[in-house]
Amino acid sequence: MENLIGLNQENMGAISSRVEKPTYNRDSITTSIVHIGVGNFHRSHQAFYAHELMQNHGVLDCGICGVGLMDFDQKIYKVLKDQDGLYTLMIKELDGTFTAKVIGSIVEFIFGPENPSAVIEKIAHPDIKIISLTITEGGYNLNEGTGKFDFSNPLIQQDLENPEAPKTVFGYITQALKLRKTRGEHGLTIQSCDNIQENGEVAKKALTEFIKKAEPELVDWVQENVSFPNAMVDRITPVTVAEDIETLKEKFQIEDKWPVVCEPFNQWVVEDHFVSGRPAWEKVGVQFVENVLPYENMKLRLLNAGHSCLGILGALHGYNTIDQVATDKDFSKFLKDFMDVEVTPTLGSLDGMDLDAYKQTLLDRFQNVYIKDLISRICLESSAKIPIFLLSTLRDQLKGNQNIDRITLVIAAWCKYNDGVDENNNTYEIKDVMKDTLIKAAELSHKNPIAFLEINSIFGDLVNNDVFVNAFVSALNKVRNKSIKDCIQEINIS
Ligand code: CS2
């Protein structure tokens, strides 16, 4: 292809005017946010909001310093370094059109394994007001069964033994906060952007437990100087595929090594507790509320749980992407009934929210055929997702003696999913930190179904609930002996 323009600051002038480019002076940006975990979601969501604030309101005090702590972050570090932090966001509408925006809000990037002290110094810098996190559901290192911080994690052990050369987010933040305290710096806000109920509380709990052991004399300072607002974050952001990179080349002659694709919908609902202030995000549609819990519940139990249902069931059927499952009438009916019958009664009152409209929008979003959201992305790390997305609803339904047919079918299907082969005899990889345990339990469950529910860190005391256990045994028997479509159709007409 001729005349390709590599994406970087110097080439911005040469990039097509059909692409939205930063019109603000990136040299004048102040970095006040350190973000840990610069995945596609951060780049379609928080970095997008910061960009909009800069672009449309000239607010330049919300620059982001990206930080990668995991070995796999080296790739994004290299790309953003080559591209001066710039990347293209491809917002794909339901009608197949898309808007391309070059996002300019990430102005620095540090790769922890290469330079740990640079990360610590950056977080300790006086300009920093917020540390935001997308470290995944499992990243908070809390045992689902006991709710306790997992000190047996070897990386945590190593951070306790070598505090100056940390490896985990907890070790890094602790060292940086210690510096802030010693230097008399102001406190800051730790803002979780992960899909966890009360994500701020969870972040606080995990970090505080770690600090109590690592630096007990820092606990009081953190108590007084660090806030942890809860938030609900939302924007479906699939894995970038080679075709996306090619589309940018063909349509706009842009050579972007790692663009991000996302849907038009985006939402961010946050509790307004920022000890050292925050950017004026309300100008770009961020909702500030007193209590984010109802919004979180709604999103985790409908969207994320809906994703898990479609992902797990779709994987067994042999589908590859969420839109394929969501546009299959049997699966979409199952999903709709799951939301109406089994989730909605658990949501409590949602003042001012039009729940029916929200659910309808969700179905439309899942059906967006231009967002090729891979089932493999959705099924990734299910052991950390299922307890948050599905088991909370299950527990509530059990408490109220209510319908659990669909949830139970999905859990049984997840057990079968861990056999690693779909109905067409195609194998797939199970990507999960608990992979070995899951595969073993699924294997045992062929003879003894309850073996799967005995994974204590996932199911906890649910294994003692007769109503659920009986329903699970019967559902597992069905999914092992019939096609998943037949199982769904049976429930759909019941
Ligand atoms: C997905 C989420 O990881 C998952 O299973 O449900 O990544 C989802 O796409 C986002 O939370 C959307 O906001």
Automatic annotation (TrEMBL):
The organism's superkingdom is given as Bacteria
- Cite the Mannitol dehydrogenase N-terminal domain residue spans from the record: 32-283
Biological process per Gene Ontology, one example term:
mannitol metabolic process
Domain Mannitol dehydrogenase C-terminal: start-end pairs: 291-479
Q: Which UniProt keywords apply?
A: NAD, Oxidoreductase
Similarity-based family: Belongs to the mannitol dehydrogenase family. UxuB subfamily.
Q: What is this protein called?
A: Mannitol 2-dehydrogenase
In which organism is this protein found?
Mesonia phycicola
Could you read off the lineage of the organism from its UniProt record? Bacteria, Pseudomonadati, Bacteroidota, Flavobacteriia, Flavobacteriales
